[in-house]
User: What shape does this take?
Amino acid sequence: MFPDVLTLTNYYEMGGFVMPPLIVVGVLLWYALTFRFMNIQTNEQGPRRLIKQAKKNTLESRSITARAAVIAVQASQKAKTRSQLKSILNERFADLRAEINKHRSLIRVLVIISPLLGLLGTIDGMIETFKSLGDMALFSQSGGIAGGISRALFTTQMGLAISIPGLMLGRMLERKQQKINQELDQIKDLVWVYTNRGNA
Assistant: This one.
């Protein structure tokens, strides 16, 4: 069961001034994670099979490695010299690497920022708590001791709730990206070898 609008409103008010930036960070983080998840798609077929299918023009996959195989085969057919082939492959593969690298830094920054925002809310809640202790007010218009402790704990929880899944998914995407980078290097090397054999 999802919480109703009133419950969500109470949560929002409980977090104080830290909640708006926390919500923005959460939305941006999940947008970046979804973008990278959709963009970093691995292919079950190995580089050799991808290159063979690209040569036969039977490759239907739109994954990064499949596109790299098509680009590499087309470059090997158009390049007149080995140096020209190397230049084309380096340039086109650099574009592919930049594509799978998109939003990587953003995710890292947001994963770091969210618990810090939660900590800021914790400090604000503790200030409210000690202020109420000084005034000997269990409850007050601003929340008092109970409101301060509640805010301190809730904002910490929210910051961690945003950061931990983002960290785990981010690491999973990092591993997928490393695998794709290795396959891109293999595709480049294989096309280079096949082209050299053809020129031999």
Notes: Residues 43-199 form one domain.
